[in-house]
Amino acid sequence: MITRNAKNILVADDSEFFRVKLEYILNEAGHMTKVVDSGRQVIELLKRRGDAFDLLMVDLLMPEISGYEVLEWMKEQAPSFALPVLAVTGESEPDNEGKAPLLDELKNLGAAGLMTKALSPNEIIHIVNSLLFHDKGWVREFRAPVSLPVECAAADFSTTINLLNLSEGGLFLQLPREVEAGAALELRFSLPGAAASLSLGGEVRWYTPCSGEDHFFSGAGVAFDSVSADDRKRLKSFVEERLKRLGCEE
Predict the structure, then answer these.
(1) CATH class held by domain 8-140
(2) Is the peptide bond before 79 cis (omega within 30 degrees of 0)?
(3) What is the pLDDT of residues 221-245, one digit of tens each?
């Protein structure tokens, strides 16, 4: 979840609470941020330092100059500004029928994606990194962000923790203690809506150390040792549905 390839992200939102939240989450994930509170500031910054940013995250509804108007201005200036734009809405997540027309409208204006403010930190970072690192295969790895409790047992400990993302072949666990690469884990968790739980063995491939008690993304990357055909099908279906809901499917 934490990148060593830091990017510069411009965040525009008139809500101080959400600006601070996004700045903290993005910085924790390894990125650098510049936050502003209006569309007017976005335009002024892009005029002066348009090549300084790798991504713009802009709230759609702001006073004076809205996110929609920022997108319209950037489209008029094309190809001067090539950075991707992630539109942000404070509305609760719409269903697929309600979401598609809005996303289509935004993409016609040049936006690369849409996210709601109700998303969890790992969902936000997944969407951000899918835009920043798409050419490096971030999306093609089909890792779906999800927060689920996992019963985790190793040779020297047993605990219940959260997983932060999941794929057919492995997951990322929010482990508060260091584990060595190669350590064997026994994992048990249930997918939302599933009647039966999954019991899988895994091997730790890497560990990201903690930088504090509130660190969102400290933990271990785990590869499953073996997965039955039925379990792989369940995992694949769940991951694809999650990515589709977040607008990250290929």
Answers:
(1) alpha beta
(2) yes
(3) 899 998 899 999 999 999 888 877 7
